[in-house]
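A.,

Following up on our hallway conversation. Structure tokens first:
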């Protein structure tokens, strides 16, 4: 993969196509997790691919291409969400629920994970999504965000604390 990235940086369009093909599904999943809409996610992949193509020469370490392009799509999705929230309040994003069984009462509970993720600070939300939903290592997240690994670990810890507090109050019985 690193060799393909180097070729793409030198202007090889076929190499760029191959590396994008390798990460296309991951990019789509990331975009869909943020935007919750198939057409918006496809548009995000398209835009991120275009942005990556234009600025691939700026990528410093070829082995982090996947992390770099994931960050591009996250930035695009965050911009899109900000735009949607400002310009069309009726287009609120639907967030899914996770259903769990309460051991003591035997009643199924709904935990609105994605809704609660939306309530925590964006920097915490981003690292939690990258770590637990996209399964990216702390080291890669740190490189992608240009932050020390310790900072990323702290953000994850604080984000999880905020998430627990919000989720504690959002339990609804089904």
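Then the amino acids I'd put at each of the 174 positions:
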């Amino acid at each position: 993969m690193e060799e393909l990235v180097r070729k793409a940086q030198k202007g090889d369009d076929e190499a760029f196509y191959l590396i994008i093909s390798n990460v296309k599904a991951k990019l789509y999943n990331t975009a869909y997790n943020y935007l919750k809409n198939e057409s918006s996610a496809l548009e995000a992949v398209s835009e991120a691919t275009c942005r990556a193509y234009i600025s691939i020469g700026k990528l410093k370490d070829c082995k982090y291409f996947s992390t770099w392009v994931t960050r591009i799509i996250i930035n695009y999705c965050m911009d899109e969400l900000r735009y949607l929230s400002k310009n069309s309040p009726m287009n609120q994003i639907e967030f899914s629920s996770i259903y769990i069984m309460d051991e003591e009462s035997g009643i199924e509970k709904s935990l609105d994970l994605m809704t609660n993720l939306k309530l925590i600070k964006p920097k915490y939300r981003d690292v939690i999504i990258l770590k637990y939903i996209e399964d990216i290592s702390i080291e890669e997240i740190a490189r992608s965000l240009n932050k020390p690994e310790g900072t990323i670990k702290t953000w994850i810890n604080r984000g999880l604390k905020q998430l627990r507090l919000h989720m504690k109050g959002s339990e609804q019985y089904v």
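The chain has two domains: 1-91, 95-174. Curious whether your intuition agrees with the design.

B.
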